[in-house]
Amino acid sequence: MRLSHFTAALACAALTGLAAVPTTLAWSPRPIFGTSESNLPPVMTDGVATWRTFASNDTRTMLFNISTHAPPKGMSTVDGKGMYGWNFYFRGAAFNASRPLLIAFGSSVTRCGDISDVVCVLNLGASEAFAERIALQGGWAKAILDPTQAGMGVLTIVTPRNYNTTTKSPIGTVYGRQAGNHVLRHYRPELVLDILNEVQSSFGFDTNKVVGAGTSMGARGMLRFITSYPSMRAASIVAGGLEGSGSRTMQALPFNSGNTGEGCWNLTIPNSQDAKCNLRTPATMPLAAQFATVKVQMYGSPGDAVANLSTVVKPTCNAINAAKTTGSCVLRLITRVSASNPAAPNHNQLSAFGADPADLNFLIAGYGGRKITVTTKTNITLTAPSISDVGYGSTSAASTSTAFLVPTTTDATAVAPTGTTSTTTDPIAPAPPTSPTDGSVPTATDPPAPVSSPTPTPTPDPTSDSPAPAPPASTDGTGSGTGSVDNGSNPPPAGN
């Protein structure tokens, strides 16, 4: 039986109504799917896998399925095994060994304070990039998931904020305030590989058609993951890079400095009390040869002070191109926030890019799939959030937000679920032009800022980048234009 104990616990709790969660959205910038498990659609099963069926937020007619997995509340682990939550998106049959797979890693604010909270895992797993597109717009849901289009399965990984070195658990930790905490701001490849094995057993996917995407912390994480999974065909990386031994993100820093770093890879030692670390985070820059057959695109900006264009992004792309055989790296250089704002995007603003049709097509091209264009029926306007990652100048136990991201249409209750989703007649337009995929760090550069608007490149605040307005529209098919309509949930400073 392919059903994991996490899935079994989730199905039992949901079907018996015993897993109610608080309705306070202390952990999320926006409740995409609801505020309580009791408000979610019922759990469906084929006897092996479990899932819920949702509808897109715009037209409410495009159905898609999500299988959500959260660790049990009483879990403990010495090596971290089993402490990640995850969501698997699909349309059509639950098990399909021929479907392509998109693995998506989010920024640091997609971490859950309580990783056992199913609703947190569900909502934060859909709060950025392609997963957010699927949840909000039916055209995207069909284009990515429907077997008649890209037909992908989408796997989003949700990580905990902390691991407690005393209780040996990510459950019941208080961010930045509890003794013995190890603050987690990374993705561990071996834990993702365990999840990948479970997804393959329960839902199936074609191991020759696996692609990845990551933003900020997720960008670093996806690049690290590929060093352990070099058979990935393509990856889209936004605001991150490979890490060398001197990278700021790998330094062992005290928590109260406003940046814990990732200097301690050993979960037995807390990194929030300035403890000495006996196992440094492994460097990934020396492993660039693992990308020899992976096609990579990287988004960078001269205004990003976290994933620095000169010291992080370009060296990563150069290292990948130096190792390439059939793989390659292309740099998407973003030089202005929008047509009306000629300033180079800071880290959080750059995180709004990387999830447009051209980006999806770049990934699809990695495994030789048919390129598509997304057509949506409703134009959704979102308000950029302003979120502070707790612990960075705050002692609050929950993240805060000054604005919810909500669609212009109301988030009505999803339609009644069925075992598998139906098809619709949403139009799919012809494919856009092919993105370049070779050369020594080629760039796809936005048009330069008008000479009459000499706005200087901003210096991002080290702890609170400003919210991101919508990025400019792209018409050349070489990278994001509108980007993800979320701005990456304003990730925390330095190495999110």
Helix and strand arrangement:
Blueprint: H1 5-16, E1 44-45, E2 50-55, E3 63-69, E4 85-90, E5 101-105, H2 118-124, H3 129-136, H4 138-145, E6 153-158, E7 162-164, E8 181-183, H5 189-202, E9 210-215, H6 217-228, E10 234-238, E11 295-300, H7 309-323, E12 328-333, H8 347-350, H9 357-366, E13 387-388, E14 400-401
Parallel strand pairs: 5-6, 5-9, 9-10, 10-11, 11-12
Antiparallel strand pairs: 1-2, 2-3, 3-4, 4-6, 7-8, 13-14
Helix pairs in contact: 3-4
Describe the structure.
With 496 residues, the protein is an alpha/beta fold. It has one domain (5-401): Rossmann fold (3-Layer(aba) Sandwich). Helix content is 18%, strand content 13%. It has 9 helices and 14 strands. It has helices spanning 5-16, 118-124, 129-136, 138-145, 189-202, 217-228, 309-323, 347-350, 357-366; strands at 44-45, 50-55, 63-69, 85-90, 101-105, 153-158, 162-164, 181-183, 210-215, 234-238, 295-300, 328-333, 387-388, 400-401. The chain has a 10-stranded mixed β-sheet with strand order 1-2-3-4-6-5-9-10-11-12, with helices on both faces. A hairpin with a 4-residue loop joins strand 1 and strand 2 (50-55). Helix 3 (129-136) crosses helix 4 (138-145). The longest helix has 15 residues, at 309-323.
